[in-house]
Amino acid sequence: MRLGRGRIRAGLAFCAVIGLVAAPAATTGLAAAQLNVRAFSAGLGYEYLSRTVVWDGDTDASRLQASLVTARADFEFDNGIVFSLSAGLAPTDVAALTFNTLPIGLQYDGAPLTGFAFGAEAFAPIHQYSNFEISGTGRFVYSFGMEKTWPLEDFAVEGEAKGSLSWLEAAIGGRVSYLSFERIIPYLEISVRWLHAGFEMTETLGDLGGTETKRVDDLGFGVALGADADLTHRLGVKVKAGLVPYSGGVDGLVTVGLLYKF
Amino acid sequence: MTKPSGRSLKAAGVLLCAVCAAFGTGAASIERPLKRPSLSAARQARNFRVEGPVRRRPGAAYAPDRVLVRFRPGVDETYADGLLRSYGFPAVRRIPGIGVYSVKTAAGISVTETLAMLRRNGDVELARPDHRARLADVPDDAYFAGYQYALRNTGGILAITPYLQYQTTAGADIKATTAWDAVKGDAETVIAILDTGVDMTHPDLAGKIVSGGHDFANDDDDATDDHWHGTHVAGIAAAGTNNSTGIAGVAWNCRILPVKVTDQTGSGWYSWIIDGIVWAADHGADVINLSLGDLVDDPFLKDACRYAHDKGIIVVASAGNDGTEGVFYPAAYDEYVLAVAASDFNDTLAAFSSYGPEVDVAAPGVWILGPAPQWYVGTGALPYLFASGTSMAAPHVAGLAALIRSAKPDLTADDIMKIIRYTADDINHATAPGRDDHAGYGRINMAKALAPYIID
User: Fold this and answer.
1) What is the CATH number of the domain that holds A201?
2) Which residues from B are below 8 Å from A103, CB to CB?
3) Which of A64, A72, B336, B431 holds its CA 20 to 30 A away from the CA of A251?
4) Would you state the pLDDT for residue B423?
5) CA-to-CA distance for B451 and B367, rounded, in angstroms?
6) How many CB atoms lie within 10 A of CB B161?
7) Closest-CA distance of chain B to residue A116, Å
8) Domains and CATH numbers, chain B
9) In the prediction, which pLDDT does A71 show?
10) Domain range for A24
11) How far apart are CA B126 and CA B70, in angstroms?
12) Is B359 in contact with B319 (CB distance < 8 Å)?
């Protein structure tokens, strides 16, 4: 049931992202053009993201950090819209998260949990002024399947804890690109970012047991600088680094992609 | 003393002639010469240095740039040094004696990534974050440090009088200070003390009393102590804590509901106890402490315990002070009541502690300092006394139950009973590993019951 709800959220986020990105393109008439694939690229991507959040029921903030290693495919259409799909692994760290309503409270200080991740990203040009282009961007990534069991030791009876983590991040925003360079397109991107995460911990200690699910929904905005560069006429690199400020500090995001054009 | 009420005639034939510690055969002989701390002890108490409580510091739970590592036995020191340096750690320091390395993480590599990397190496036995330690919450009560070994035993001398002193064993305690760092309880959680009454004017108790309670011995609403036992028991469970006065109670912030179920001699009819349990259950008790009992089984007494238990109340009772097989009732009502044996300052079971399959846990019950009515100790004497018995052990458990209830109000009474049992330390593991009839699951451990278990 929990996993199903997560997938529904992921689906809704996907639809929302695609819809919001495609809408501005449609208003400019670009969407009215044919949807033939103009270019196809595939490659590898790495992404690091951190979000400092306060989980429901907590008073202190803790940090969710994920490193995604994915295979990625980009489809560029005749109207300039680029649609990307990615899938891979996402080790995620939620250090010092506590589960206080379980019969024996648990504090998670373990190694990052590795799960699957899949995502989608869309880019749609909206308007061009001289050498500058304004475009809409949107993406979502959903990570799931992170499950692990730990023994609970030093009690009078045998016990174990079983944790299951999933998270979803969706972002939508605008990008201003500078087009006058021949092989590199630098850009500034501003986005609104929504993070939903759930960590279910089940504890069993002899005939005593309980389940606690920590959830968080967090909305932030990010500012990033990035560039899409052609190393050769077939090999391209996409890099982006940004900040996501929160009350009391900033989180970071880094994206690197290496793509081969077919 | 008023006569037993008519509705209690079924039980009226059974007189509780020995209300655990003070009234049992074993404890009475221990307690009597030790009614009050000696004058020398009192003078020492006034000279204690008093520090304020140490507060929790905000910040990371562990060092953000350092981990601790130990290699498997047989891994050569030179090899281990070289291996750690090969990872590119900027600083590696060996802590002599135990073969543990303190390692500074490489720039840009988090603690969790470093730990994951080290744990993948087959030569590494253990790699852990460098956790932040802090001084646990230590109350400033005047006699806490010197006399309350039960709550925190640092291994010093327990000086009852200048001539009666014991060497104690560090760690033979219920780990109260570590637990208080996590939970101090709240004032809404109420421990009913069914006993000889409570001295509601005592400086260490006055602020913790919920109401005048009820006196079933005299059938009125004034459960004032006309003995000393109930005042002592109430103080162990929930004396005013961190008030610079007297002792610390186990349940730091929880409050006391006095219910008088024995007369001034320390004896009471089962009917008074039955009435008391039901009354307490109906008047807001979250925990009921019964430092009393007898060997006579009574279905009505059992019914009363079931009534309280079914209302979510944790019922705690002393196992008895006969030192023989046979746990007192109501402690022996295994489904509904936690039966508590007594241990001492060396984590040894008290000789007077009764035993049997119904014993759930043990708690300190030898030379326990607690409050006593001023009129009882005499004018000019400190209103505290040392006493021994499973009567003194039970309120330690009642206090713990109240703290768990405060922290986790949604748990059932059964859940809380299990937590107390399963987190106990098996103090007689060498002679009777696992649960046994003398210590049950072991001496309670508040830290394990209340502080989070760390998964790493």
Assistant:
1) 2.40.128
2) 408, 411, 415, 418-419
3) A72
4) 98
5) 27
6) 15
7) 18
8) 6-52+138-450 (3.40.50.200), 66-131 (3.30.70.80)
9) 97
10) 2-261
11) 5
12) yes
Residue with tokens 């005592």: B202
B368-384 residues labelled b (16+ CB within 10 A) or e (exposed): bbbbbbbebbeeebbbb
Mean pLDDT, rounded, for A18-27: 50
**pLDDT (tens digit per residue) in B57-96:** 334 567 778 889 999 888 888 899 888 988 889 888 888 7
Residue B250: DSSP 8-state: S
Number of cross-chain residue pairs from A and B with Cβ atoms under 8 Å apart: 89
Distance CA A244, CA A221 (A): 6
Round to whole Å and give the CA distance between A57 and A198: 13
Kindly report the average pLDDT of chain A as a whole number.
87
Which residues 333-372 of chain B have a CB within 8 Å of chain A? none
Set of chain A residues whose Cβ sits within 8 Å of the Cβ of B110: 65, 93
How many Å apart are CA B236 and CA B313, to the nearest integer? 19
User: CA A81 to CA A73: how far, in whole Å?
Assistant: 14
DSSP code for B198: B
CB atoms within 10 A of CB A249: 11
Sequence-distant (6+) residues with CB within 8 A of A199 are A55, A94, A97, A108, A163, A164, A165, A213, A214, A215
- Number of structural domains, chain A? 1
CB proximity B426 to A under 8 Å: yes
Partners of A107 on chain B (C-beta within 8 Å) are: 61, 452-455
Give the model's pLDDT for residue B135: 53
Q: Which stretch of B81-85, B132-136, B286-290 has the lowest confidence by average pLDDT?
A: B132-136
User: Tens digits of per-residue pLDDT, B398-408?
Assistant: 999 999 999 99
Annotated active-site residue B229? The verdict is yes
**Burial of residue B265, with CB atoms counted within 10 A of its CB: 0-12 exposed, 13-18 middle, 19 or more buried:** middle
Strand pairing category for B190-195 and B287-290: parallel
Q: What are phi and psi of B162, to 5 degrees?
A: -60, -20
Please say whether the beta carbons of B371 and B231 come within 8 A. Answer: yes
Predicted local confidence at residue A209, as pLDDT: 95
- Looking at residue A7, what is its pLDDT? 54
Phi, psi for residue B385 in degrees, rounded to 5: -150, 160
Beta carbons within 8 Å of B268's beta carbon, 6+ residues apart: B16, B19, B216, B217, B261, B262, B292
Amino acid sitting at position B19:
V
Catalytic residue among B181, B195, B294, B322: B195
A203 contacts A104 by C-beta, under 8 angstroms = yes
Alpha-carbon gap: B212 to the closest alpha carbon of chain A (Å): 33
Q: Do A155 and B450 touch (CB under 8 A)?
A: no
